[in-house]
Amino acid sequence: MLNKVIIMGRITADPELKKTASDKELTSFSVAVDQPPRNGEKKADFFRCTAWGNTAGFICKYFKKGAMILLEGSMHNDDYTDDKGVKHYGMTMTVTSASFTGERKEGSYS
C-alpha cells in the first residue's frame, strides 16, 4: 500500500505555531492549488494540511499568506458525525516535508 501526496500551491492564511498539552509543536493551514483553466475559468483545489515538530516550526518561520510552498506527506480521513447525527467527510494532508519553490520574496529583486 502507498499513501504519498506531493502538492505545490499558495498558503491561504498565515500559519500559526501551536503546542499540544504534551508540548508537541504543530500548525494547521490550507493550501490553494490552481487547476488547469477550463473554458477560460480559473478554479483551485484547497487542501487542509497539518505539520508537526520541526516541520511545523519551519513552515511558520518562513511562509506567510500567499507564499508558494511545496509539500510532501500523506492524506488521512477526518470524517466525523456532528451532534445532529449528520456524517461529515473530509481529508487532511499530514505534512512530512516542506520546501521553498524558488519563488522570490517581494522586494528581493535588487
If you had to describe this structure to a student in words, what would you say it looks like?
- With 110 residues, the protein is mainly β.
- Helices cover 9% and strands 46% of the residues.
- It has one helix at residues 53-62; strands at 5-11, 18-19, 25-34, 44-52, 68-77, 80-81, 87-88, 91-99.
- The protein has a 5-stranded mixed barrel with strand order 1-3-4-8-5. The chain has a two-stranded antiparallel ribbon with strand order 6-7.
- The chain is globular, with a radius of gyration of 16 Å.
- The mean pLDDT is 93.
Topology:
Elements: E1 5-11, E2 18-19, E3 25-34, E4 44-52, H1 53-62, E5 68-77, E6 80-81, E7 87-88, E8 91-99
Parallel strand pairs: 4-8
Antiparallel strand pairs: 1-3, 1-5, 2-3, 3-4, 5-8, 6-7
Number of strands: 8
Tally the helices.
1
Give, in order, the helices and strands. EEEEHEEEE
- Helicity level: under 10%
The residue-averaged pLDDT reads 93
Biggest sheet character: 5 strands, mixed, barrel
What is the CA-CA span between the terminal residues?
48 Å
| Structural class label | mainly beta
Identify the overall geometry: globular
Task: Give start-end ranges of low-pLDDT stretches.
Answer: none
Features:
110 residues, mainly beta, five-stranded mixed β-barrel, 46% strand
Question: Quick gist of this model?
Answer:
9% of the residues lie in helices and 46% in strands. It has one helix at residues 53-62; strands at residues 5-11, 18-19, 25-34, 44-52, 68-77, 80-81, 87-88, 91-99.
